[in-house]
Amino acid sequence: MADAIPEPGRGRAPPRPVLPAVLVAMASAAGGPALAATPPDGAAVFGLVGLELGFLAALALIALACLFVPLSRALGLGTVIGYLSAGVVAGAALSISFTRDPDQLLHFAEFGVVLFLFVIGLEFRPARLWEMRGTIFGRGLAQVATCGILLTGAGLLAGLDWRVALILGLGLALSSTALVMRGIDESGERNSPFGQTAIAVLLFEDLAIVPFLLLVTLLAPSGGEASLAGDARAVAIGIGAIAVLIAVGRYALDPIFRVVARTRTPELMTAAALGVVVFAALVMASAGLSYAMGAFIAGVMLAESSFRHEVEADIEPFRGLFMGLFFVAVGLSLDLGAVAEYWLTILLAVPVTVTLKALGAYVVNRAFGTPHPVALRIAFAMGQHGEFGFVLFAAASSAMILPGDVSSVAVAIVTLSMALSSQSDRAYRLVMGRKAPETLDEDFSDADGSVLVIGFGRVGQLVAQPLIAEGIAVTLLDHDADRIREARQFDQRVHFGDGTRPEVLQAAGAARARAIVIATDDPATTLRIARIVRRRFANAALTVRAHDRIHAVRLAGEGVPTDAIMRETLLSALSLGATTLRALGYPEDEAAEVVDRVRRRDAARLDEQVAAARDRTERDAIVSAIAPEPLDRD
C-alpha cells in the first residue's frame, strides 16, 4: 500500500480519466455553452463576458444539481450523493470558472456549515450546554484520540513517515459535521441519546481543529522557530475572541433584534440574522479559530432570546442552499486524476479507514456505558471522514508536511467516505436486522367490558374517553408493548394482543361485548379484523375507523354498515371548514347548514360507490378508479 503513494518529487501529472459517454451527454445538456474550452482572458462565450460568465457557471451547477439530486433520491441514495455527483461531473466535463479553482468555491460554500452550526446553537441553551460538558470534553476527547491513534498506526504500517501518518490520522479522525447533523435532523433525533452524544462529539471535533492546525505549525520544517510565548499568545487570543462573542451575545444581540423588529421589515430581520452569523465567524477567524465554532456560540447566545424562532426561520433557506453548494464544491474539488492513478490505493484505504474509525467510536462509547444499539449507530453515523480534514490537509500541504500526491489521495479518501456515508443508516439497519416485535404475557381474566376497543393509539385513546367518563366498562386491546407500558404509568389497563387473531378476540371478550370499536391505524389490519368480527362476533354493534374514502368502500364491501364507518379526517376537516366560514363572517347557523349540505352530498356519493363495489370480483377495479371529483357551487 505504501508503494502506491509516490515519495515527494516522484509525482507526475496524472492522466485525466475518461468519463462514460452518458455522463458527458448529461453534462452537455445541463451545461450548454459552458462545455466549451476555457476562453482566453477577456474573450466572450456567446456574447457573455465578465460577471455574465459567472452567472453561466452558476447556472451550469444549478442545472446539474437539479438533474442529479432527484435521480439520486429516486435511487434511494439521498440528496448528498446527488450534490456530490453534480460536482464531480461539473469538474470532469465542464470548463467553467469554478472548475479551474474549486478550492475557492469550497471555501465560500463552507458558509453552509457555518449556518448549520448556528442553527444547532439555537437549540442549545447555555445551561444545557454546560450540563453536556462532560460528554463534550470527556467522550469527545476519548473518541478523537482513539480514532486518531488507530488511523495513525495504520499509516505507519503502510510505510508513511511518522509526521505524515500523524497528520493523516488526526485529519481522518474528524467526522463530517454537515453530514451527521443532516442525518440527525432528517430522522428527528436531535434530542435522542444517539443525537445528543453525536452532537457533543462533533462539537469537540470542531474545537479540536484548532490544536491540530497548531500542531501542523510545530511539525513544519520551520516549526522549530515557534516559541512558547507565541503559542500562549495564540491561545489567549482565542479565549479572548470567545469571551467577546459571549459578551456581545449576552448584552447586545437581544436589544439589536428588538430594534430591528420594531421596523416591521422582514428582509431587515433576515439581514440582521445573517449579519450576526457573519460577525461571529469573522471574530473567530481573526483569532485563528473555526468559523463554525463562532456561529455555534452566536446561536447559543440567542437560544434564550424571544427572537430565536424567527431568526431560525429566516436562516433556514440560506442554510439549505449553502449546504447543497458545499457538497457540490466537495465533488468539484475531487482530483479525478489522482483517483485514476491511485485508484487501487483509495479503493483499499476507504473501507480500512472507515472501519477503523467506526471501531474506535464503538469501543469508546461502549466504554462510557452506551448501550450496544446506540453505540453501533454512532459508529456507523460517524465512521466517515469530514470536511475539516480538507482544511488540515491543505494546511499540512502548504507547510510541506504532506506531499502533493499524498494530499490528493487523502482528499479523495475523505470525499468518497462522505459519499458512502449516505448509506450508513441502511447499513446499520442491515447489521441490526429487523427487530422482532416484543410480546408480553397477558391475562384476560379481567376482560369483561361491554365495549371492546381494538387499537389504543391516538384515535383509540380519544374513543375510549367519553365511554370511560360515562362509567361504561371498556376493554382495551393493543399489540404495541411500549404503548401498553406507557398506559400503565397513567393507571390505564390495556391488554396486550393481536386483534387479527380470532382466539385473542375471543379471550378479550368479543363474544360478550355489546359493541366493538376497531381503531387500528393500518388499513390492511383494520380490514382483517373487520372480516373476523363480522364472521365470528356478529352479535356486537361494530364501528370502524377508516383511513380514507377508498378504505371506507372496502370496509363496506366486507359488510360493515356505512353509518358505522368513520373516516378519520372527515369530521375534523368539515369542522375546520365551518370554523373558516365563521371567520369569514358567516353566521353560526348558516355555516352549519353549508357544512351539513356538503356532508350529505359526500354521504350520497359514498353510498353510490359502495353500491357499485358490492360485487367482490369487480371491487378492485371500481375502487382503484375512485378519484377526487370537482365540487360545483350550489
From TrEMBL:
Q: Which UniProt keywords apply?
A: Antiport, Cell membrane, Ion transport, Membrane, Potassium, Potassium transport, Signal, Transmembrane, Transmembrane helix, Transport
**PROSITE patterns, per database record:** RCK_N
- Record's Gene3D superfamilies? 1.20.1530.20, NAD(P)-binding Rossmann-like Domain
Please report the stretch or stretches of sequence annotated as the RCK N-terminal domain: 448-566
Q: Which SUPFAM superfamilies match?
A: NAD(P)-binding Rossmann-fold domains
What is an annotated GO biological process for this record, any one? Answer: proton transmembrane transport
Is Secreted given among the entry's keywords? no
Regarding the membrane, this protein is recorded as:
Multi-pass membrane protein
State what protein this is by name. Potassium transporter
